[in-house]
């Protein structure tokens, strides 16, 4: 039987209206625009309004992707949302989005793989399509990470933003996703985590709120090394050479990490989609936001080979190599 591939029909994204620049941050955090730009490449981030949720942003991104694909929500047979900032504990945000789109009845669930959430979700969706189980799938990555920022902690306050991205996948005889690689190593939990949770009893240190804890320097080192081997693994899994790649669409956490991966692949920065300057780190939202920007700006064209990769808390790391 001929191979079935998952093909991206269209993309969509959504960002909160409010923009917080580095200069805005300088007013209430002990930091500077220069420090943030030099260390991370970030110039601004979008921040969700009060009451604006991950589900709101996901629904908007999904509707834009569905419209661009010319697909009705009722045609979907699977919805997967990568997020670590769900609206509520349950039902999953994927279920909330499903109902708002009017796709009731199909399977819907969240994937929590921190910043790798979207690429994980894409990997899972690809397996459903390849197995013949699903024909049209909505995959999203979305976060309202600023909800867990303590704005007095400059080490993390400057790094994160909110946003959502989505793709509509279709089963196709044409490629499509060639390969996905998903990994995790829970041994690194202490380097990047949020300790607040349900089963531990919602405990956190007093006066700190629900906050992200991160050892920035260590995360940086492991991320660069891990992404180096991830991109090699992905090329091998797809049976391709780096020279066949048209675009690198990386997780947007830090420009220096992105540059290191591009260098490893021998790709010029002209072949790399960079949105970290405008969006900061939107965790699971980052790769689909970058992808939608790349498609809608006309940079990425049909038939081109894209390498998507992400790294985040867990640690988790994941990639997808596909023909758009
Ligand atoms: N503004 C100004 N100064 C800051 C600051 C801020 N926002 N945050 C930290 N500093 C200070 C530190 O206190 C330290 O001061 P000191 O030298 O007097 O002690 C100095 O800047 C250097 O801090 P350090 O943490 O060593 O900087 P760094 O070069 O490692 O850059 C990160 C910090 C967080 C930007 C960088 O480590 C990073 O991006 N790591 C990866 C994070 C990441 O991607 N996380 C998500 C993964 S999904």
Give a quick precis of the structure.
With 324 residues, the chain is α/β, with parallel strands linked by helices.
How does this structure look, described?
The chain contains ten helices and 13 strands. With about 325 residues, the protein is an alpha/beta fold. It folds into two domains: about 5-175, Peroxisomal Thiolase, Chain A, domain 1; about 180-324, 3-Layer(aba) Sandwich (Peroxisomal Thiolase, Chain A, domain 1). The strands form four sheets. A five-stranded mixed β-sheet has the order 1-7-6-4-5, sandwiched between helices. It is globular and about 60 Å long. The mean pLDDT is about 95. Coenzyme A binds next to helix 2, helix 6, helix 7 and strand 12.
Question: Number of helical segments?
Answer: 10
Based on Cα principal axes, name the global outline. Answer: globular
**Stretches with pLDDT under 50, minimum 5 residues:** none
The CATH superfamily of the largest domain turns out to be Thiolase/Chalcone synthase
For this structure, the CATH topology of the largest domain is: Peroxisomal Thiolase, Chain A, domain 1
Instruction: Count all strands and give the number.
Output: 13
- Strand ordering within the main sheet: 1-7-6-4-5
Looking at the overall shape, the CATH architecture of the largest domain is: 3-Layer(aba) Sandwich
First and last CA, distance: 23 Å
Mean pLDDT: 96
Radius of gyration: 18 Å
Largest sheet: 5 strands, mixed
Domain Beta-ketoacyl-[acyl-carrier-protein] synthase III N-terminal: 109-186
Subcellular location: Cytoplasm
Subunit structure: Homodimer.
Keywords: Acyltransferase, Cytoplasm, Fatty acid biosynthesis, Fatty acid metabolism, Lipid biosynthesis, Lipid metabolism, Multifunctional enzyme, Transferase
